[in-house]
Specification:
The protein is α+β, with helices and mostly antiparallel strands and 706 residues long. The protein has 24 helices and 27 strands. The strands form 6 sheets. A 10-stranded mixed sheet has the order 4-5-7-14-8-13-12-11-10-9. Strands 15-23-22-19-18-16-17 form a 7-stranded mixed sheet, sandwiched between helices. A hairpin with a 5-residue loop joins strand 10 and strand 11. Helix 13 packs antiparallel against helix 20 and helix 15 packs parallel to helix 16. The protein is elongated, with a radius of gyration of 38 Å. Bound molecules: pyridoxal-5'-phosphate.
Length: 706
């Protein structure tokens, strides 16, 4: 947050804020406040959060007393706030203001006058809580009599009798017309006279000041009068009309008015006719006479009209930097639940570029095989470091296209074998089978859940044609060893890089570490579209060309079909979206790594086994942050109670799926243990630092035996 002292350049910004704030009225507009400026040193402050103005604070500064005053007469001070401001933000605003005034004004004391709740659109007293946290104490308590118009008490007969007496004596109600300064003059004479005789004070506003204000705010400030038959004024009051409240000030009744019930007549009129639509009528607190309240007795008098008391308080803070610095309770976090992955938030963070890109496609009239797909293919190939990127329908089809193309180009026999990790997402296995090849499931290592290279020799035979390293959870497999093994056994290496966008091994990206690679741009992947998309990456010109034709009905030229193909395309909209997102991929991955590092440092619950960070951190992009625990159900439940969502990648191993019944006989203990114990913690790049800390704290406090 940032505090800026108000200057006249900000007048428009200030007034616009006041108008849409939840507790500001025209009394806080600069045109009103500035008329005071010759009496006070204006030290009004504006507070920005993320460059958005979220609060303004009208205040004055008395340098010799080292005191900041948050009020100017009727213009109550206190924080003006937006309706959306949260309690935590208000605490932070108050803290920033106090720290600012300590640093720049060397204040020792702040006098704070909250705006009474009746002036708020939605009654809230967040600033009172902030005062409490800052160590404030009540300084003065003004009490005003206010009628809640939705629930007025029954008017007493007494008032009715007074009003009738006034009418019987020929008194009548009048309102000063705009700019009728003679009438104002006459009333101010009466008012000054009455105040002087009864209370030995003069009005806070001189006649000239009132004239100035009335000419600036003709709609909001009105003078109501009671006249007698000869038209002379016997009583009256000024009404400040704010959005919820008719605020009555400068009430005066001369001797004749008092005798004849002039104010009974006037208030009856204001309450039951003139302002009956208002939420409140406020008879105000008079602070003349050095702060002595003139109208203490009037509360009870006005009770006759159904008024009750509302406090107009002021607080005093002896500012103590240490106390102010402790104002924000460290463990107070807005109780926002932490979603596993909030795609709406994620995609919103690419605005407005994302919507602009989509709109350009919508307007272009070209929705398939146009410039957006061509551009993204080029960008992604360059990023991964391969000669070809061929976009297709999704990640699974990318795998199917690769295997079908390789099968044809290399004349692999039906049911040739392809080694694949048993704990992959089922799409890898389905794709191999879909291409007429036979998946051979390999156990992973428990420590990194990646294919166990040590076991490969047991799985390879003369039917084996390929091996699929799956960079599961975003971590690159041990490619030098896999490639060496493949070379030795004349196998091709097809990377399933659907979870590893941006991961690197040595100086090459995942996707450029084998013969060909499949990527998925499923929305939740590290690089995700707004729907389905995928691609094939390879340096093999023949393969790329074959895949491209096959994905387009086996056709390179329209209506000429050389090979039996399918339709598997990424549309222009998705390609445009991907081009917007690609430039941020590395930064997002870096943030994921940062979160992973924090988890590794912070989580120390002995019931949890965490993933390891590879020695070269660039080898992991943490698509998933998988932990292992024998207490998965209880932990998920515990985290849910702490409003933290987790997901299981994946709950049932492929060989236990009905869709892959031919593998049901296999015993794969490591795979089974992973699927039984694995749990994915939130690792969205948009998690805030404090959300990460919340996850760590919740996990460390987990103890299923409690
Ligand atoms: C997501 C994913 C796929 C499939 O991608 P789709 O675009 O959903 O078809 C394949 N393999 C792995 C490892 C995946 O994570």
């Amino acid at each position: 947050m940032r505090v800026v002292q108000y200057t006249n350049q900000q007048q428009d910004e200030w007034d616009a804020f006041v108008r849409q704030s939840k507790n500001g009225t025209f009394l806080h507009e600069r045109r009103f406040m500035d008329y005071h400026s010759d009496r006070f040193t204006d030290c009004s402050l504006m507070v920005y959060d993320d460059n958005t103005l979220i609060s303004v604070f009208p205040a004055n500064w008395d340098a010799s007393a080292h005191t900041l005053y948050s009020h100017q007469g009727l213009t109550y001070g206190g924080l003006l706030l937006t309706t959306e401001a949260t309690q935590r933000q208000v605490l932070e605003v108050m803290q920033c203001i106090l720290l600012w005034s300590i640093s720049y004004l060397q204040v020792l004391r702040v006098v704070y006058k909250p705006i009474p709740y009746i002036y708020s659109d939605c009654a809230a007293e967040e600033d009172l809580y902030a005062l409490f946290r800052a160590g404030a104490r009540l300084r003065t308590r003004g009490v005003s009599s206010v009628i809640t118009m939705s629930n007025p008490l029954r008017m007493r007969k007494l008032r009715m009798r007074g009003a009738r007496r006034a009418i019987d004596n020929g008194l009548y109600i009048d309102r000063m017309t705009d700019e009728d300064w003679c009438t104002l003059h006459e009333y101010w004479q009466l008012l000054s006279d009455v105040l002087l005789r009864h209370h030995a004070v003069t009005p806070v506003h001189s006649e000239e000041e009132m004239r100035l204000l009335m000419s600036r705010f003709p709609q909001q400030i009105k003078l109501y009068l009671v006249r007698k038959a000869d038209k002379s004024i016997v009583a009256g009051c000024v009404v400040f009309i704010t959005r919820n409240v008719a605020h009555i000030q400068y009430i005066a009744s001369g001797d004749e008015g008092r005798e004849h019930g002039a104010l009974d007549l006037l208030f009856r009129h204001l309450i039951y006719e003139r302002f009956k639509q208002m939420a409140y009528i406020d008879f105000g607190v008079s602070t003349e006479n050095g702060g002595q309240l003139l109208n203490e007795g009037l509360i009870f008098q006005k009770e006759g009209f159904g008024a009750r008391s509302v406090c107009y308080d002021s607080y005093e803070i002896d500012v103590d930097r240490a106390v102010v610095e402790q104002m924000l309770p460290v463990d107070v976090e807005p109780d926002r639940s932490i979603r596993y992955l909030d795609l709406q938030q994620l995609n919103a963070s690419f605005e407005p570029l994302l919507s602009e890109a989509v709109e350009r496609v919508v307007r272009s009239g070209r929705y398939l095989q146009g410039s957006c797909t061509a551009a993204f293919e080029q960008q992604f190939a360059a990023y991964i470091g391969v000669r070809h990127c061929v976009l297709c329908g999704n990640g699974m089809e990318a795998l199917v296209l690769i295997f079908r193309a390789l099968k044809t180009l290399h004349q692999w026999a039906d049911n040739s074998e392809v080694i694949v990790p048993a704990n992959t997402f089922i799409a890898t296995i389905l794709a191999i089978r879909e291409a007429g090849l036979r998946p051979v499931l390999a156990e992973p290592r428990l420590c990194d859940q990646l294919i166990d290279v040590e076991l490969l020799p047991q799985l390879v035979n003369e039917c084996t044609v390929a091996i699929v390293p799956v960079h599961l959870y975003g971590r690159v497999c041990n490619m030098p060893r896999i490639n060496a093994f493949a070379r030795e056994h004349h196998l091709l290496v097809v990377e399933d890089a659907a979870q590893a966008h941006g991961a690197m091994q040595g100086d090459r990206h995942a996707g450029a570490l084998g013969h060909a690679a499949a990527f998925s741009f499923y929305p939740a992947k590290n690089l995700g579209a707004l729907g389905d998309a995928g691609c094939v990456c390879t340096d093999d010109d023949t393969l790329a060309d074959y895949v491209r034709r096959m994905a387009n009905y086996g056709s390179a030229t329209k209506y000429v079909h050389e090979v039996p193909g399918i339709n598997s395309r990424t549309d222009e909209l998705q390609a445009a979206v991907l081009s917007v997102k690609l430039p941020r991929l590395d930064a997002d991955n870096e943030r994921r790594r940062w979160i992973a590092r924090r988890y590794m440092e912070g989580i120390d619950n002995p019931l949890i086994v965490e993933p390891a960070m590879p020695r070269d951190e660039r080898e992991h992009v943490f698509y998933v942050y998988p932990i292992l625990t024998g207490y998965r159900q209880q932990l998920m439940q515990w985290l849910r109670q702490h409003h933290i969502e987790t997901i299981i990648h994946y709950p049932i191993p492929p060989h236990r799926q009905a869709a892959l019944a031919e593998f049901a006989h296999l015993r794969l203990p490591v795979t089974e243990q992973i699927h039984r114990d694995v749990l994915s913690l939130p690792i969205s790049p948009l998690l805030s630092d404090s959300e990460v800390e919340r996850v760590i704290a919740a996990i460390n406090s987990f103890n299923p035996t409690d």
